[in-house]
Amino acid sequence: MIMGKQKKQSELIIKIDGKEVKAAEGMTVLEAAQSADIFIPTLCFHEKLEPYGACRICTVEIDLSGWTKLVAACLYPIEQNLVVKTRSEMVDKIRKMILEFLLAHAPNSAQLQDLAQEYGADKDRFEKESSFCVLCGLCVRYCAEVKKKNAVGFVDCGARREIRFIPEIASKECNSCKECFPLCPTSYLQAAFVLTESLAFSKDSSQTALKK
Amino acid sequence: MPRLNSAAELEKLRKGILSGRDPVKPSIAICAGMDCLDRDNGRIIAAFEAEVDKKNLKAKVDLRVTGCHGYCEKGPMVVIYPEEICYVEVTPTDVPEIVLRTVLGKKVIDRLIYADLDTGEKAAHLPDIPFYKSQRRHLIGNNTKIDPQSIDDYLAVGGYSALSKSLFEMSPEEVLEEIKKAELRGRGGGGFPAGWKWKTARDAPGKEKYVIVNAHEGELGAFMDRAIFTGNPHSVLEGLIIGAYAIGSHQGFIYTRHDAPRLKNNIDMALGKAEEYGLLGENILGSGFDFHVEVHLDIGIFVSGESSALMRSIEGNIPEPRPKYIRTSVSGIWGKPSDLNNVETWANVPLIINKGSEWYTSTGTEGSKGTKLVSLSGNIVNKGVAEVPFGTTIKEIVYGIGGGIPEGKKLKAVHFGGPMGGSIPESLIDTPLDFDELAKLGAPIGAGSMLVLDEDTDMVDVTRYFLKFLSDESCGKCAPCREGIRQMLKILNNICDGKGKEGDIERLEEISEVTGTASLCALGKTAADPLLSMLRYFRDEYETKIDKVISPAEKRE
Q1: Mean pLDDT (10-residue bins), chain B, 557 residues
Q2: Exposed site from A128, B99, B325, B381, fewest CB < 10 Å?
Q3: Which long-range contacts (CB under 8 A, 24 or more apart) does B265-273 make?
Q4: A97 contact B CB<8A
Q5: Pairwise CA distance, residues B66 & B144, whole Å
Q6: What is the Cα–Cα distance from A149 to A169, expressed in whole angstroms?
């Protein structure tokens, strides 16, 4: 990723919600906001991981010489005199609906519920979905980027996209790690793992694998 | 074949090829485009080969298996040169007669020529057939004259003269300036000025730069890129090499489909031959310019053709789009400046260099110069690939070239741009084919697929069909796209199943606004465009369907 991790020395001045913020060139809008204690909600963002831009909850409004544009704060690189609004009618509308989309999958997620309250999202707006996963990819990316194991990944695409543990890797790595579990905004990842484990391995083979 | 080392050597070779060719020698061009091949024209090719063999005509007659001739509706097609006599819907049993009476006897076989379905009016020569009459086939016209696997055929029609001109008579800046002056706009969908894109890549910092042909062509009902690239691969390759020279790139990529083996084969052959002739590789034509090309195959989903996803795919990663807050022409493949243009855009380049921007801009409209390939499908008499000057009215394309609507039915709408495009109603068909005019109507030209819809079409179902396609063919990475499409599709399914509810249209509009503004890439941002154009022009149909009043399409059943 070009953005985010590239730290340069020169300092830029931007405006977030009317407040002047000094931030280093190469920072994203989210990083700049965080450095100034300005809150922008996130779901798929994690400071140890490359910005991903999938949940779009961090969508903010920027002013580009007169016309406004909606961008993902976790990815958008700051530039001198950038004007950012972390809330606006459209931003709130987007966040509300994304939350409603995701609550159809994970109605009991505390993190989603907190945000739902803030943005007036109705958790029952859309019919419940059978999958509880919101596909934020935190587990997938943590396993790939931090642990470098790739024990869990995305399979399929479009509306059929889902996460899957790779049995050959998971049987060796996951039992002693489980570091991805607390990252999950739906707290259902463990269930997924156990379910996959029970489905994927016969009792004998999994026990021998786990003893190794 | 020793590598060519100068412009003079290329011209000498061309002269040699042309002097060995007798302009009055009969030549049989058999269409082997995708559609004709599907109609078992392998047997026709074999029949011609056998007949030529039997009559001992190998030295007297040229047999050419060519790319798509465009008129798919009437395939398999055979054109006999030098008279340019065109036979349609040819069968293997017609072959002996064609060879005997037309190739040798110079007579036209009346029953094999084109005849208008309504008036019975006949046309024996290709340019006189209504489908071809108002076309201007700058890009695809050579398809009937070229065996795509023969570089000599391409050289015989002037091939690689634009490359030679660029390398020896023009500086890279001059080439770039010419493309800018030609106002060439990207043909893949966005219509972005190609010259400016090239300039961005050229000016971007970094020594290593890439040029890419997007030959993914995933748009539903689009088959014109395949027609050019399969039928005349060198024209695209020549454009790419010229672009690389202008931009300062030494490595190119061709990204194409895994499910088009003939296309892949012809590209591979073209690359091999161009390299052998010294038109590709190290020290091209002795100019000192080096350029190499690699071919990459897609992984088979629609979103692979989105520029940033395509570049991820070339890197060897999953083809998921990434945000283009920094343009790919500045930071693309492996973070290097990467200029991506579509097949048709590249094919325009040699034409502009050879004939000049002034000639080029004399065709078209104020904002859209040159010609555009369109593929005609749906409820239209003449399905196929046509090339028309920008500015041609939609009416002329549908009724003049396309021959109108089958079974005397009325036209309801023309849908442009496939699953991310839009429709215009019959009342607006006097609109000229033009990037900006059509975009204003909510039906951007896209890559050029034109789906013609007759009066019986259920416009809710068309939208549902497109959204279902995107639901399967998007990547699923970002929430507004994946979940928005899911929810819109649910509502449309309900409406189609007679379970529509009051407020459904407003719900669709609300979701489409979020999906359209918050999605990561162009697929999500435009996923609801067909829906919005339908609501703009056919809202009453949606309302009627929800109100459970029987719609015309249901009445028919």
Answers
A1: 94 97 94 86 94 94 95 94 96 96 96 92 96 96 96 97 98 98 95 97 97 92 94 98 98 94 95 98 98 92 88 92 88 96 98 98 97 97 97 98 96 96 97 97 95 97 96 94 97 94 95 97 94 97 80 49
A2: A128
A3: B266/B67, B266/B148, B266/B149, B266/B229, B266/B230, B266/B233, B267/B215, B267/B229, B267/B233, B267/B237, B267/B295, B268/B295, B269/B148, B269/B149, B269/B233, B270/B148, B270/B151, B270/B233, B270/B234, B270/B237, B271/B237, B271/B295, B273/B151, B273/B234
A4: yes
A5: 6
A6: 8
Q: How many residues does chain A have?
A: 212
Structure tokens of A89?
């009618």
Q: Which pLDDT value is given to residue B287?
A: 98
Rounded Cα–Cα distance for residues B17 and B155 (Å) = 8
Nearest residue to B189 via CA among B526, B449, B446: B446
Please report how many Cα atoms fall inside a 13 Å half-sphere around the Cα of residue A110, on the Cβ side.
5
Residue of B nearest to A55 (CA): B479
Query: Nearest to residue B307, comparing CAs of B287, B289, B329?
Result: B329
Contact B482 A135 (CB under 8 A): yes
Quick one: DSSP state of residue B94?
A: G
Give the tens place of pLDDT for each residue, A32-50.
Answer: 999 999 999 999 999 999 9
In this predicted structure, what is the pLDDT of residue B304? 87
- Is residue A7 very low, low, confident or very high in pLDDT (cuts 50, 70, 90)? very low
Contact A158 B325 (CB under 8 A): no
- In terms of residues, how long is chain B? 557
The minimal CB distance from A54 to the residues B474, B478, B489 is found for: B478
**CA-CA distances (angstroms) from residue B157 to B161, B278, B408, B479?**
10, 18, 41, 51
Q: What is the ipTM of this complex?
A: 0.90
Q: What DSSP letter does each residue of B221-255 carry, written as one string?
A: T--HHHHHHHH-HHHHHHHHHHHHHHHT-SEEEEE
Write down the architecture of domain B373-454 according to CATH: Roll (3.10)
Q: Is B322 on the interface with A (CB under 8 A)?
A: yes
Per-residue pLDDT at A195: 65
Domain definitions of chain A by residue range: 11-87, 138-211
B-chain residues near A76 (CB < 8 A): 323, 325
Query: How many whole angstroms separate alpha carbon B514 and alpha carbon A57?
Result: 11
- Rounded Cα distance, B337 and B333, in Å: 7
Q: Are B181 and B357 in contact (CB under 8 A)?
A: yes
Give the tens place of pLDDT for each residue, A188-204.
766 676 667 656 654 54
Contact B285, B245 (CB under 8 A): no
Cβ–Cβ under 8 Å, residues B517 and A94: yes
What fold does the segment set B22-131 form as a domain? Glutaredoxin (3.40.30)
| pLDDT value at residue A210 | 46
For B306, the token pair is: 């989105």
CA distance B389 to B385: 14
What is the distance between the alpha carbons of residues A132 and B516, in angstroms, rounded to a whole number? 25
- CATH number for the domain formed by residue range(s) A11-87: 3.10.20.740
Structure tokens at B45: 């090719």
The pLDDT value recorded for residue A191 is 63
E strand or H helix at B80: strand B78-81
Query: Is the CA virtual torsion A27, A28, A32, A37 positive or negative?
Result: negative
CA distances from B497 to A45, A159, B438, B490, B493 (A): 40, 21, 32, 10, 6
Which pLDDT score is estimated for B450? 97
B459-556 fold: de novo design (two linked rop proteins) (1.20.1440)
Architecture of domain B159-360 in CATH?
Answer: 3-Layer(aba) Sandwich (3.40)
- Would an 8 Å CB–CB cutoff place B312 in contact with chain A? no
Q: Give domain limits for chain B.
A: 22-131, 159-360, 373-454, 459-556
Residue B480 with chain A: CB contacts under 8 Å: 56, 94, 97-98, 101
